[in-house]
Design brief:
This protein is of the alpha/beta class and 370 residues long. The chain is built from 13 helices and 13 strands.
C-alpha cells in the first residue's frame, strides 16, 4: 500500500482557472477545435503586451547559469519604480506562489482565516493545504457582489481570524474597495495578517496607493507583473511588506524560484512605463465597447471597477459551450459559485468585435443558456 499523504491533503481539489490549456484535449477534439485558434477572453492579462522587442531580447539571457535566488536586480528596479527599499520586496513566480508561501509561513492548523467571497480560489486552496478553518463573508447579488464592510468588521470582532485575504480589485467581480474600507478592516485586525492581493490594480481606474499601509507591520501587498505586462508564460509577481515579514517569507522561499528569463524580462518591461499606460487606455476602450454592446444585446453586465466584468447569461456552462463551439473562450463562473454568470476580459478591438458577432449569431440561433 502506498504511503498516504497528510490528512488535510486528502480530498483537495485543483482550483479552477481560465485559459485554453485548462480545457480537456478530448473536449476540444470532439468539437473539432484547434487550441491555437481559440480566442481567449477568459484570462485577465494585458492583451497589448509585452512591449515590442521583449521576445527578441529573451534569447540573449543566459540560461546555462542558475538564476539569482534573490532576484536582486529586479528588486532594485522595482524599488526605484515603487520608491521603497529593496528589503521590503519579495519576487515570486506569480502571485499564486506568494499566496501559498504566505500560508506556509504564517498559518497553523486550526487557525481561523477570513475570505471575502466570491473570490480567487487559490486563497482557499492554500488555506486548506495549511489545515486552517475557513470563515467566509459572501457578498450578495442584490449588492452587485460588493462586500459589506460592516459585516466584515462584525466577523473580525467575533472570530478574530489569524489572517484575512482580500482581492482588490476582486476576481471575478471587479469590485474595488476604497482606502477607507481597507483601513477600517485593518483597524479591527489587532495582530492578524492582512493579505491584500492587488493583481489587477494597474487596470483599475482611480486606484489608490496602498504600499504605505505595509508600514503598520501586519500587511502584505501583492501585485502581478504577469497580468500588467502580459507574461503568463513566464509567471512574475511580487510582494511588499515590512522587513520582518519579507525576511520570514524569504526563509521559506525555494531557491531559484524565479527563472533568469522572467527576471530579465521583468527588468526590461519596467522601463516601458509609457507603453504600459498606452496599453491600459486601450484595454479600457475595449472594455467600454464590450459592455456597451453586450448591454444593447440585452445582457445584464455588472458594474466593474477594473477591466474584466461579469455578465449574467442564465446558464453559464451552456453559454460557455455555445461560445466555445464558435472558437470563443470565456470564464465560466460556476467554480466561483456564480452559475448564472460568465466573466469576460477585453482583447484587441478586432477580437472584441468578433466576440460580439458571435454573441449576435448565438442569440439569432436561439441557443440555450444565452
Amino acid at each position: 500500500m502506498p504511503l498516504r499523504p497528510r490528512r488535510v491533503i486528502t480530498g483537495l481539489k485543483a482550483c479552477a482557472h481560465g485559459g485554453v490549456f485548462q480545457l480537456k484535449d478530448a473536449e476540444l477534439k470532439a468539437l473539432g477545435i484547434n487550441p491555437g485558434e481559440v480566442l481567449d477572453f477568459s484570462v485577465c492579462t494585458n492583451p497589448f503586451m509585452p512591449p515590442p522587442g521583449i521576445k527578441e531580447m529573451m534569447s540573449a539571457i543566459p540560461i546555462e547559469q542558475y538564476p539569482d535566488s534573490q532576484s536582486t536586480e529586479l528588486r532594485q528596479a522595482l524599488s526605484g519604480r515603487l520608491e521603497i527599499p529593496t528589503e521590503n520586496i519579495l519576487v515570486g513566480s506569480g502571485t499564486t506562489e506568494l499566496i501559498r508561501l504566505i500560508a506556509m509561513t504564517y498559518l497553523r492548523q486550526r487557525d481561523r482565516v477570513l475570505l471575502l467571497e466570491p473570490t480567487y480560489g487559490e486563497y482557499e486552496a492554500a488555506c486548506r493545504f495549511a489545515g486552517v478553518r475557513l470563515i467566509k463573508h459572501c457578498a450578495r447579488e442584490n449588492d452587485n457582489y460588493t462586500p459589506q464592510v460592516k459585516e466584515v468588521i462584525e466577523i473580525l470582532r467575533k472570530q478574530r481570524p489569524r489572517a484575512v485575504f482580500i482581492c482588490n480589485p476582486n476576481n471575478p467581480t471587479g469590485k474595488y474597495l476604497s482606502r477607507h474600507d481597507i483601513e477600517t478592516v485593518m483597524d479591527n485586525l489587532e495582530d492578524s495578517l492582512l493579505v491584500l492581493d492587488e493583481a489587477y490594480v494597474a487596470f483599475t481606474v482611480d486606484n489608490w496607493d496602498s504600499l504605505d499601509l505595509t508600514e503598520r507591520g501586519n500587511v502584505v501587498v501583492m501585485r502581478s507583473m504577469t497580468k500588467d505586462y502580459g507574461l503568463p508564460g513566464l509567471r512574475l509577481g511580487y510582494a511588499v511588506a515590512c522587513r520582518e515579514i519579507i525576511n520570514s517569507l524569504r526563509s521559506v522561499l525555494p531557491p531559484w524560484n524565479v527563472n533568469s528569463i522572467a527576471q530579465g524580462v521583468g527588468i526590461a518591461v519596467l522601463e516601458q512605463e509609457e507603453y504600459l499606460r498606452q496599453s491600459l487606455r486601450q484595454v479600457q476602450e475595449a472594455k467600454r465597447f464590450l459592455t456597451d454592446r453586450l448591454t444593447r444585446l440585452g445582457f445584464q453586465v455588472l458594474p466593474s471597477d477594473t477591466h474584466y466584468f461579469l455578465v449574467k447569461v442564465g446558464n453559464a456552462p451552456a453559454c460557455c459551450l455555445a461560445l466555445l463551439q464558435r472558437g470563443i473562450l470565456v470564464r465560466d463562473c460556476t467554480s466561483f459559485g456564480l452559475n448564472e454568470y460568465i466573466r469576460i476580459s477585453p482583447r484587441t478591438m478586432p477580437e472584441c468585435e468578433k466576440l460580439i458577432g458571435v454573441f449576435e449569431g448565438i442569440l439569432t440561433a436561439g441557443r440555450d443558456g444565452v
